[in-house]
Design goal:
The complex is a heterodimer of chains A (276) and B (472).
Chain A: H1 2-17, E1 27-38, E2 41-52, E3 56-60, H2 67-73, E4 84-92, E5 95-96, H3 104-110, E6 111-114, H4 125-135, H5 142-155, H6 159-162, H7 175-188, E7 193-197, H8 205-218, E8 223-227, H9 231-237, E9 240-245, E10 248-254, H10 255-260, H11 265-271
Parallel strand pairs in A: 3-8, 3-9, 6-7, 7-8
Antiparallel strand pairs in A: 1-2, 1-4, 4-5, 9-10
Helix pairs in contact in A: 4-5, 4-7, 5-7, 7-8
Chain B: H1 8-39, H2 49-86, H3 89-92, H4 96-112, H5 120-158, H6 165-205, H7 208-213, E1 217-218, E2 224-225, H8 228-259, H9 262-277, H10 280-308, H11 324-349, H12 352-360, H13 365-394, H14 397-402, H15 420-428, H16 437-471
Antiparallel strand pairs in B: 1-2
Helix pairs in contact in B: 1-2, 1-5, 2-5, 2-6, 4-5, 6-16, 8-11, 8-13, 9-11, 10-11, 11-13, 12-13, 13-16, 15-16
The chains are: A alpha/beta (276), B mainly alpha (472).
Chain lengths: 276, 472
């Protein structure tokens, strides 16, 4: 009897991690009434936004609209900025991550992040990937670690290009490769959510296309939130889109709907290039 | 008139006069060029009128200044050689050194107007010296003014719409800046050359290898020039200093750049840098009067405890009133700001994106510092440590006061040691004759010191350069 329950639970878990879960989206993160201010200056006004699992949510909007600031709330990176104050609830797995009892260090191991500019550590390719598993004690043996590094690099589509030079420095790769290295590095910690802050803005079109393919691949396993300046990119890679303007959430919905049939005038003006 | 103005004010008056002439030249040049501008709209003037003004001013001022400087440097020499040519035969047959001394006394007497003494020949020569001096000075002034006028007219004639005054002025400025840089380099080269020359004289009397590897140093009383104990003392004290300064300075820098809030930082950083502003002589008497006695009493206590416990029969430590440890500790404190300030700069130069990357992976602050920030800053930190080492090796005042005079090789940190710098001071203070190997050995020591610190600085520079290539 007991073994059946365990078994069925395992089946469920296995099922959800498989690829046939397209469309079966439920909010992975529920943001309620988020306000952010830097000192006296308010950056984000009362934003509520559900973020679905196993899909890509794009945050678009003109510069300074607060989309990066909002993104950084999701792994409490704003804690590292002295003057920044965040209020509101961000519910993830039934917990409010803004709760002071939540350890941001643990949270960040569940919510990975990729930055605007590729920022590999000044270490070898191998050590860049192995860094996360090492500090979190994820690998018991050297073999485990090797396997994790290979798996992460494969998922980031970089393995074939670097497998023969894992010990050369991360900085020796090209810009696009470096960014995929950073994605592999984030994956290696086994996060559930991956945040990407304009991941392609420093890359050429070819490297950008590679990253976009990768994002499309990754969304089968992870909940992805991406900030982008390129509306084409948002349309290509995301399933949901949220349009920010002057610190407010103007509109959010399915990407197709936002780009073909926006409800708000401001959204339409922005995506048709009338401002921003 | 000219003589009554004396030496120094005369020079300043001359400079002021030349400056006035130059500004006159500036206006003449500018007005002339402005006329082209106004005369016809069709004429395109290459340089703005101001540049024509600067050009004329430059040519008025610089040649005259060169003449004036040449007089300031060579004037007295010319006067002397003129005077020496006129002296009676018995003077001319004097050995040249004696003649120089005699002329020195003449010049001094003439300068003080104290030549009305009993010696009639002497006072006659002194008067003649003054006359010659007046003549040379007057002709120098005349020459300076003539070259100012010559330069002025020559430059004025060039002022024309198509004349590229701006290019010329830029060239002049570049030359001036180059000369300033050249002075610094020439001085260094000169110092090194004189060090080398005197050292070679020393090594012609004392064999090089005996100096470098000899273990007995007794330059003051007997001629024993084995400098090894001095090198040993220098490195021992520098080592003790770095054992203090490297960890404390580095950790202070990490605290300041990674942990401290802006308010704490605003207070702690300047206070740390005050340490660098304390005169080393103050550190010196702190070491001598506070630290050295404390170390001695601790050493005495250890000795008596060990003896009474029956572990040793003889006192283990030397427990001298001045000691390597006292000098090293205080020097370590002195060097802390060098390490912390430079390391702080380097750590701050590590891009924030690297820290963000580590934090975003769930690294704690100390993990981020240990695995990401420090490795990235390591070359710069090494450079700051090397600069601190060369600073510690060259430091003089603290060791003169607190390290002692005895040249010996002893592993006991409570024993007194002596260093290269202490011995240089000892050799060159008080009565010294310039030709003895004793005095010359100071130059050899100085050369060694120079080579060592140069070596450390070069490595540090090289490391910093490599580091720059990585992040720019």
């Amino acid at each position: 009897m007991e073994s059946t329950i365990t078994e069925s639970r395992e089946t469920i878990t296995a099922g959800t991690s498989m690829d046939e879960t397209e469309g079966l989206t439920y909010p992975r993160i529920e943001c309620k009434n988020i306000n952010v201010s830097y000192g006296d200056k308010r950056a984000i006004f009362d934003i509520s936004l559900p973020i679905p699992d196993r899909s890509v949510t794009a945050l678009i909007g003109p510069s300074g609209c607060g989309k990066s600031t909002f993104l950084r709330c999701l792994n409490r990176m704003n804690d590292t900025i002295e003057s920044c104050k965040v209020t509101g609830e961000i519910i993830m797995d039934g917990e409010n991550i803004n709760d002071p009892d939540i350890d941001p260090v643990l949270l960040r191991s569940r919510v990975g992040m990729v930055f605007q500019k590729p920022n590999p550590f000044p270490k070898s390719i191998f050590d860049n990937i192995a860094y996360g598993p090492r500090i979190h004690g994820l690998a018991a043996t050297r073999e485990d670690l090797d396997e994790m590094v290979e798996k992460s690099l494969r998922r980031a589509g970089l393995w074939e290009e670097v497998k023969d030079r894992l010990s050369s420095p991360g900085n020796s790769l090209s810009g696009g490769q470096q960014q995929r290295l950073c994605i592999a590095r984030a994956i290696a910690v086994r996060p559930e959510v991956i945040l990407m802050d304009e991941p392609c803005s420093a890359l050429d079109p070819v490297a950008t296309a590679r990253i976009e393919e990768l994002i499309d691949e990754l969304r089968k396993r992870y909940c992805i939130v991406i900030v982008t300046h390129s509306m084409q990119q948002a349309a290509r890679v995301s399933q949901r889109t949220a349009f920010f303007h002057l610190g407010e959430l103007v509109e959010m919905g399915d990407t197709d709907q936002i780009f073909t049939n926006p409800r708000e005038r401001r959204t339409e003006d922005y995506i048709t290039g009338r401002f921003g | 008139m000219v003589q009554q103005l004396g030496h120094l004010p005369m020079g300043w008056l001359m400079l002021a006069l030349l400056a006035m002439l130059a500004s006159g030249g500036f206006f003449v040049g500018r007005v002339q060029a402005e006329r082209f501008n106004g005369a016809a709209g069709s004429v395109r003037i290459h340089s703005r009128p101001n540049y024509h003004g600067y050009y004329v001013a430059m040519w008025t001022f610089v040649p005259a200044l060169i003449v004036a400087l040449a007089y300031a440097m060579l004037g007295e020499g010319i006067v002397r050689s003129l005077l020496a040519g006129e002296l009676p035969a018995n003077f001319r047959n004097m050995p040249s050194v004696e003649l120089e001394v005699y002329l020195d006394s003449i010049a001094r007497a003439a300068f003080d107007h104290g030549y009305g003494g009993a010696d009639r020949v002497f006072s006659a020569i002194a008067n003649r010296f003054l006359e010659l001096q007046g003549m040379v000075k007057a002709s120098a002034i005349g020459l300076a003014l003539a070259s100012a006028a010559f330069g002025f007219f020559l430059a004025r004639r060039k002022v024309a719409p198509g004349f590229r005054a701006r290019t010329r002025v830029e060239g002049g400025i570049e030359l001036f800046l180059f000369l300033c840089a050249a002075i610094a380099i020439a001085t260094t080269v000169g110092i090194v050359a004189s060090l080398l020359y005197e050292s070679l004289r020393f090594f012609s009397e004392v064999p090089f290898w005996d100096f470098l590897f000899g273990t007995r140093w007794n330059a003051q009383t007997s001629a024993e020039f084995g400098a090894l104990p001095l090198f040993y003392g220098t490195f021992m004290i520098a080592l003790i200093a770095m054992l203090i300064a490297a960890p404390v300075g580095l950790f202070a820098a990490i605290y300041l750049s990674e942990y401290a809030g802006p308010t704490v930082r605003a207070w702690v950083k300047p206070v740390l840098e005050v340490l660098a502003g304390i005169p080393t002589v103050v550190y010196g008497f702190f070491a001598l009067l506070v630290v050295a006695p404390a170390i001695r009493s601790v050493a005495v206590w250890i000795n008596t405890t060990l003896i009474s416990a029956g572990i040793t029969a003889e006192p283990l430590l030397a427990a001298q009133p001045t000691s390597a440890l006292a000098a090293g500790l205080v020097m370590g404190i002195m060097v802390i700001p060098f390490v912390s300030s430079l390391s702080d700069d380097v750590i701050n130069a590590v891009p924030q994106t690297l820290r963000d990357a580590a934090y975003a992976m769930g690294a704690t602050k100390s993990e981020t510092v240990k695995h990401v920030v420090l490795p990235a800053a390591l070359p710069g930190i090494i450079a700051s440590l090397l600069l601190a080492v060369s600073r510690a090796i060259g430091e003089t005042m603290i060791v003169v006061m607190a390290a002692g005079q005895r040249a010996r090789i002893s592993p006991d940190p409570t024993a007194d040691l002596t260093t290269i710098t202490v011995q240089i001071v000892a050799l060159l203070t008080g009565e010294t004759e310039f030709d003895s190997p004793k005095t010359l050995s100071a130059f050899a020591l100085g050369l060694v010191l120079f080579v060592i610190t140069l070596f450390f600085n070069l490595i540090a520079l090289r490391v910093v350069q490599k580091y720059r290539e990585k992040y720019d």
